[in-house]
Write a structure and sequence with these properties.
By secondary structure, the protein is an all-alpha fold. It is 49% helix and 0% strand. The protein contains six helices and no strands. α2 packs across α3 and α4 crosses α6. It starts with a helix and ends in an 11-residue tail after the last helix. The N terminus and C terminus are likely disordered.
Length: 172
């Protein structure tokens, strides 16, 4: 049961932002050089993570679904966080770097949200219809974390919707 609740919290934290593999269209071929873009973004994300750590920001062990480091808000002083984020901003990939998720994934996330609401989690929001992002405030995330219906609803709905709702093909 604890593992399911932790997976739900990780899902909620990870889905605060949508994303995927960055793609840049080549003028010469018209196709995206995904390997180079992924390597560049991965390198940039590592520099961002290392910068945050070197500036005293405590990170969670798990990355979100787009590979971004997650800040441990309980163990990081807000002033340290603000300073660290400002100093590390040059390493943070921009939204333009991330490709739009495919519509099948966005639709799967919408179905998951609808299912969760139908199974006793009425506050669970729909994802952004274009990006698939979930915008969940810290207050709502705390309420959802403590919601006794969430674990059961998440198990049921993930079986119904499948791994596509997560956006990376892995089952929860």
């Amino acid at each position: 049961m604890a593992a399911v609740v932790l997976a739900a919290v990780a899902f909620l934290a990870g889905c605060a932002d949508g994303g995927g593999t960055p793609r840049v269209v080549s003028v010469a071929t018209g196709s995206p050089p995904a390997t180079q873009a992924s390597a560049d973004r991965g390198s940039q994300l590592r520099r961002y993570r290392d910068c945050l750590l070197s500036n005293g920001v405590t990170l969670l062990d798990q990355l979100n679904v787009e590979g971004m480091p997650q800040i441990d808000k309980e163990r990081t002083n807000i002033d340290v966080l603000a300073t660290g984020q400002e100093k590390c901003r040059p390493y943070l990939p921009t939204a333009v770097d991330a490709a739009r998720p495919d519509q099948a994934m966005v639709e799967a996330r919408r179905r998951l949200a609808e299912c969760l609401r139908g199974h006793g989690v009425p506050e669970y929001p729909d994802p952004d219809p274009v990006t698939g992002d979930l915008r969940i405030s810290d207050q709502l995330a705390a309420r959802l974390k403590d919601d006794p219906s969430l674990a059961s609803a998440l198990r049921t709905c993930q079986q119904q919707v499948g791994p596509a709702a997560r956006g990376d093909g892995a089952a929860r």
